[in-house]
Structures are given as structure tokens and as C-alpha cells.
Specification:
The complex is a heterodimer of chains A (about 325) and B (about 120). With about 325 residues, chain A is α+β, with helices and mostly antiparallel strands. Chain A has ten helices and eight strands. In chain A, the strands form two sheets. In chain A, strands 2, 3, 5, 6, 7 and 8 form a six-stranded antiparallel β-sheet that branches. In chain A, strand 7 and strand 8 form a beta hairpin. The longest helix of chain A is centred in the C-terminal third of the chain and has 33 residues. Chain A starts with a helix and ends with a helix. Chain B is mainly alpha-helical. Chain B folds into two domains: about 70 residues; about 35 residues. Chain B contains four helices and no strands. In chain B, helix 1 runs antiparallel to helix 2. Classes of the chains: A alpha+beta (about 325), B mainly alpha (about 120).
Chain lengths: ~325, ~120
């Protein structure tokens, strides 16, 4: 065997150097499974890094990018703007579940089966809570704000200006360069509005009421796509408000709001979705291992519940990735 | 084990509290820097981003070295995981630099088409 010749070579000057590879102890002093989960997590880290770097590259290549504290400012049951509040709550849910996970691992080292089960149970609840929060966040973005993988209604002004009112004259609404806006969607055509004239007014107003911040054009109902004095409504119903540019080389010109960087929606849904999928599969693994813990299978192994430690590593990694997703999507 | 059960419990509690506090500070920095908390105050982006990236890296360090127990593993294991991650430093620099160059190109294209229209 090849190892025999290696052994002979080395024993001359160092007889203890090969002890690790003789089977007497573990290389790196960890079990095979634990070492391999580390290398799996390393490869997973590169996958996430690839996604986040793609996000950074595209963001750097755009003249403007949606401001996160405008985009992520909704909170369940609360009206108005609450920048970053909900996503901070999500982060806390995940952090808490990370803490309960490490407590489960510690109880596992003591071979305390009951303790492991309780703390793992709490971790599962935390994971499900995080997934619930994400589901609400996605529902709001897709259902209420009409963002999709290919459409990004969150644009950012690159110049200062004044919005036009319903008569096409300058209103009192002024904005500065760098302000992010949301293209609201008018509800017309389709099934309901075309069928009965009287419902169309309420439908349009219902949509407006959902966005209390959209003051100024709340009293206007756009009945069909077209060019209105204060906005252009496109075929899909997105309202592009008109404004007069007040600085820069285009000063004095009338323009209408355009869609934001197209890749924003795809990047957001794919990266947070990929992370959410990790959380989801983590919950599934946690459940399987919890069942095994309860069945007493790891007690028989007498290795300090190493399996709990492995899922713990995975779970902390998910939290680690969230630190960076949180940083690049919500903070920067 | 590098430390006993009660000691480990204490470290875990301490780590989670630090992580929570750092997260809150990060959010406050992000909001304060953009003028949400103190009216009219806007911090320069460069300082804000450096602070937030630094705090996130500190959080990552705590998660990997305390929660994931890397601090108490063999040095060889630590190096075999941490050294490959260093490759990302260059990846980030190179890609963001390239992204910035695209922005320049886009502006050049726009200016050129403007010149052609005015001719």
C-alpha cells in the first residue's frame, strides 16, 4: 500500500507525525461528518457570495438604485412608512433561533435528551417564524406594490423636480435627486372595471388608500391607459407621474417617472428566495433530527449528539448568510 | 471540550446579546445617516458604509468563531476553511470595479447617441 512507503519515509525523523492518519485519532480532531459539513458550507458560501457579488456589480453599473429604506418600509397592520422595521424584526427572529440552536448543541454534549428536544423545538419555531415573515414581505411586494422578477416599479430620481397636479400645472410636491418612488398601479379594464362603471371609482381609490404616502394624486382615477395631464398610464396600468425637472442640464423639461433598474426584482427574489429555501430545508432537517433525538438513536451512538452539532453548523451558516443579505439589500 | 458547560452557556448568552446590540446599532446607523432619526442630518455614505460593513464582518466573526465553534477547532481546520474565503476579497474588488466601468460605458454611449442626433 502507498501509505506503507510513506510511513517508512517519515518514521525516520518523526515517528508521531503520521499518528493522525493511522486511524488512532481524527485528522483535525473532528469527525468525518463534521469536517465535510464544514466544506459543504464553504462551497455554499461561495454560491451566496457569487449571487451577492452579482448584485453588487449590477448595482454599481446603474446610475441609480432603489433606496432600501423606501422599498422596505411596510409593516403588518401599520399604515405609513416604517423603514427597515420589519426586516429588523426578521433578523431578530433568526438570531434568536441561532441562540436556541447553540443551546441545543450544548445540551447534546451533556447527553441531555430532553434539553436538546426543547431547544431544537424552539429553533424550529424560530425558523418557521422567519419563513412566515418572509412570506408576508414577498406578498406585500408582489401583491400590493406589483414588483415581479422582470418588473421593478421602484425607481429613483436622478434629478430634482416638481410633480404636476391634475391640471398639468406645478404642484406643491417637490422632490430631490436620489429620492425613490413607487409606480402605483391603476385598476382598470380586465374583469371588474369594464363590467360596471360604478365599481371602477372604488377600485381605483382602494388601491390609492393602500399607499397613504401617495398624496397629491389620490383624487384621480385613471380609467384607461393613456397620457393624462399629471401622469402617463401604461398598458399594464402602472402610473408614471409627470414632473418638471428643476436642476441639471434638462431643467425645465417635463418628464414622467420610469421603471427602476430591471434586475432589482430578479436579484431580490432569487437571493432572498435562495436564502429562504435554505431556511426551509434547515427546518426540514431540524425536524428529522428532532425525531431521531426523541427516538433515542443518538444516545446509543454516545458521541455527544454530533448530529445535532452538524445541523447546528448548518443553521448558524444560514444566519451568517442573512447577516450579509441584510447588509447588502437592506442597509447599504 | 475547551470549556465547561456553564462557561459555554454564558459565552452563548453573551454572544447573542452582542449580536443583537450590533444589529440594532447597524439599523440606527443606516437610518440616522439618511436623516430619519435626527432631522436634516445626513452622514457621508463612505463613512456609513464602512461602519456598517465593519459591524457586519464583526457579526460574521462572532457567528463563525463562537456559535459555529471555529475558535475551539484544530488550527488546520480553521485555515482550510478561512483561507479559501480570502479569494472573495479579490472577487469583490474586481467585479465591483467592472460594474463601475459599465456605468461609465453607458454614459459614453448616451453621450455619443446625443451627438449623432444633434448632427
Amino acid at each position: 500500500m502507498a501509505t506503507d512507503t510513506l510511513d517508512k519515509k517519515h518514521t525516520d525523523h518523526d515517528s508521531t507525525a503520521n499518528a493522525s492518519w493511522d486511524g488512532a485519532e481524527y485528522p483535525f480532531k473532528v469527525g468525518y461528518g463534521k469536517l465535510m459539513i464544514w466544506y459543504f458550507l464553504l462551497s455554499d458560501a461561495f454560491t451566496f457570495a457569487g449571487f451577492l457579488i452579482a448584485y453588487g456589480t449590477l448595482r454599481f453599473s446603474m446610475p441609480s438604485w432603489p433606496v432600501p429604506d423606501y422599498v422596505f418600509s411596510t409593516f403588518p397592520f401599520l399604515e405609513g412608512h416604517h423603514p427597515l422595521l420589519f426586516v429588523t424584526l426578521m433578523t431578530f427572529v433568526l438570531l434568536f433561533s441561532s441562540f436556541t440552536m447553540i443551546r441545543a448543541v450544548q445540551e447534546g454534549h451533556r447527553e441531555n435528551r430532553r434539553g436538546v428536544a426543547i431547544w431544537m423545538g424552539l429553533t424550529i419555531i424560530g425558523g418557521l417564524g422567519f419563513l412566515g415573515c418572509q412570506a408576508w414581505e414577498w406578498t406585500t411586494l408582489i401583491g400590493k406594490e406589483h414588483m415581479s422578477v422582470t418588473t421593478n416599479p421602484f425607481g429613483t430620481h436622478t434629478e430634482s423636480g416638481i410633480y404636476l397636479d391634475a391640471e398639468g400645472k406645478e404642484s406643491s410636491e417637490v422632490f430631490a435627486a436620489g429620492t425613490t418612488y413607487l409606480l402605483h398601479k391603476a385598476t382598470f379594464g380586465g374583469e371588474h372595471a369594464a363590467a360596471a362603471d360604478h365599481t371602477e371609482e372604488t377600485a381605483a381609490h382602494g388601491e390609492e388608500a393602500a399607499h397613504a404616502d401617495a398624496a397629491g394624486h389620490g383624487g384621480h382615477a385613471y380609467k384607461a391607459p393613456g397620457d393624462y395631464p399629471d401622469a402617463v398610464v401604461d398598458e399594464r396600468g402602472y402610473i408614471h407621474r409627470k414632473y418638471i425637472v428643476s436642476d441639471g442640464e434638462h431643467a425645465g423639461r417635463t418628464k414622467s417617472e420610469s421603471f427602476g433598474p430591471k434586475a432589482f426584482g430578479a436579484l431580490f427574489f432569487f437571493i432572498t428566495g435562495f436564502h429562504g429555501f435554505h431556511v426551509f430545508s434547515g427546518v426540514v432537517f431540524l425536524l428529522i433530527i428532532l425525531i431521531n433525538v426523541l427516538s433515542g438513536i443518538y444516545v446509543a451512538r454516545r458521541n455527544g449528539n454530533e448530529m445535532v452539532e452538524k445541523i447546528g453548523l448548518y443553521w448558524h451558516f444560514v444566519d451568517l448568510v442573512w447577516v450579509f443579505v441584510f447588509l447588502v439589500f437592506y442597509l447599504l | 471540550m475547551a470549556h465547561d458547560y456553564t462557561g459555554a452557556k454564558k459565552i452563548a448568552l453573551k454572544t447573542i446579546i452582542i449580536l443583537a446590540v450590533v444589529t440594532v446599532v447597524e439599523v440606527l446607523v443606516a437610518l440616522t445617516g439618511k436623516g430619519y432619526i435626527i432631522e436634516g442630518l445626513h452622514a457621508p455614505k463612505l463613512i456609513m458604509n464602512t461602519v456598517m460593513i465593519g459591524m457586519s464582518l464583526y457579526k460574521a466573526y462572532l457567528i463563525v468563531f463562537e456559535f459555529m465553534h471555529m475558535k475551539y477547532e484544530a488550527k488546520g481546520l480553521m485555515l482550510s476553511v478561512m483561507l479559501p474565503v480570502c479569494l472573495l476579497i479579490w472577487a469583490i474588488i474586481a467585479f465591483l470595479y467592472e460594474g463601475d466601468a459599465w456605468k461609465g460605458n453607458r454614459q459614453t454611449v448616451q453621450e455619443r447617441s446625443k451627438v449623432e442626433v444633434s448632427k
